[in-house]
Amino acid sequence: MSRADAQTTVGERRWVNRALGVAAWITGLVFFFPVFWMVLNSFKSEQDANTSPKLFFHPTLERYHDVTKSAAGLLSFGDAFANSAVIVLLSTVIVLALAIPAAYALAVRPVKKWRDILFFFISTKFLPVVASILPIWILAKNLDLLNSRQVLIILYVGINLPLAVWMLRSFFQEIPRELIEAAEIDGANLKGQMTSIILPIAAPGIAATALLCVIFAWNEFFYAVQLNPVKGSTVPIWVTTNISTRGDFLAKLSAASVLACIPVVLAGWIAQKRMIRGLAMGAIK
Amino acid sequence: MSTATRPRITRSTRPTVPRIPLSESWRRRLPLLPALLIMIVLTQVPFVMSVYYSLTDWRVVPPEPRNWVGLQNYTRLFDNEFFKDAAVTTIQLTVFPVLGALVLGAGFALLLDRRFFGQGLVRTLLITPFLLMPVVVGLIWKNQMFHGLYGVLNWGIDTLGGTPVDFVSRYPTISIIVVLIWQWTPFMMLIMLAGLQSQPSDVLEAAKVDGATPFAIFRQLTLSHLRPYMELGILLGTIYLIQVYDQIAVMTGGGPGSTNLPYFVFQRSIGGGWEFGQASSFSIVVVIASIVIATVALRVLSGLLKGEEIA
Hints:
The complex is a heterodimer. Chain A has 12 helices and no strands. By secondary structure, chain A is mainly α. Chain A has 2 domains: about 5-60; about 70-285, MetI-like (MetI-like fold), CATH 1.10.3720.10. Chain A is flat. Chain A starts with a helix and ends with a helix. The longest helix of chain B is centred in the N-terminal third of the chain and has 32 residues, at about 80-110. The interface between A and B is large, with 106 and 105 residues.
């Protein structure tokens, strides 16, 4: 290849790269548009939101005020957030407390037939929640757990535990065996192995796993609406209370949606790189 | 649990003691048991209850004594037109979103997997839909994008001189598919991005030095490297999308073209039908279909679990 040839190729490459960069930007902006529009609508008056789409308007925080104001007998913003926070955090903590030892028993010091057991965990995800909702509803009713936080905490543990076991197992497998063996020879017990080696090395993976559990639990709607649809309920239910059959509601709904999504979206934005790494390590290996 | 784990801890501090096989295997099993027991209780017990209900004619409203009817609910299943419609809708609402999101996600991942100005920001924009609450996604698309009068899409159609369409009521299936693709593309993109970033760079370099064109590198190296990631995306996407409920509930509330099997089971039972026996037989069919898909998928995907064989 002559020098001139090589130069044109490099020049072409650069041009192609730039074009692809522009294409990526356009794709990103188009794809993000519904979110952008939702945020914009949340600062509009109902009149401005419910007309031909307009970009320029008098921004107002009134809708945020409307949706956070509590009315007697209805699920209020504060209650819904408090309920969601308690349910999501407790269920995630329980999931990790159960999944970390289980992943240890599947990866670091595997039990016999660990493969079958892992398959069992994954296969529970194939059971559609709808197939279990009826018995669960009946059980919850008989145990007087309908409309309680406890029932959602238990069920969210069930939703997230298989995923957590599956992901954590792969992270634990990445830990060099020599490190664990060395610790064992030094006389470290299970607790010692955990705190000195396994947990620190797998920390990014554990964080990614916890984040996914939080996302799924925070956003969960089906169980919440079936089993706990009234005052003690969670944020997704509260969002739907902002739809009204009389009059316009798009701006109000947008404000409620922004509030409902902010915690998880921010967490996801901050942790995105870690999530990608977690999936790369976690899923395939 | 603390009392149960104690013996293992003290024993493992003395690695020179010869291990007794039986207690060793229990020592290994113990940390697994709490998680395993909880999953058995939470999934298998309701499942067995569902199987039992599906063999009865249990109806709550109006209350009637529960009678054992054997397989009657199942033999009548396919006479039910609504059930057949719901089955077809389920397939449509699973296959198209999974494939659409996979193709778009792979494309987006390829666009992102290069250095350009604002790369991190574009990635942030692209992953956002996956982080949104499904209920919010359904409501926002229905009320601001698809809306018959003020929706953004109809504004576009109107500007171009077309006639506005009430998307959600005219084309419920397609509307929901679009929304599901939008929400699941970032998930597929993340998986594909993870695949692209784990490509061994030395192999790519070697291919470049050998004068392989970018297209040849992509076709011969990248695609085969991405295959397990695509399979993983299809598997996970299918598991979640086959049981979509939220978007249907808030966008159409069910109806022809949008009631999938999970939604149908809900409608026929605690959603107002109160025919617990019949609804249970529907849900068992969903379970069996899911298990068939899962078995096929997992067999195809067995490469995923090859990993390293330990002990």
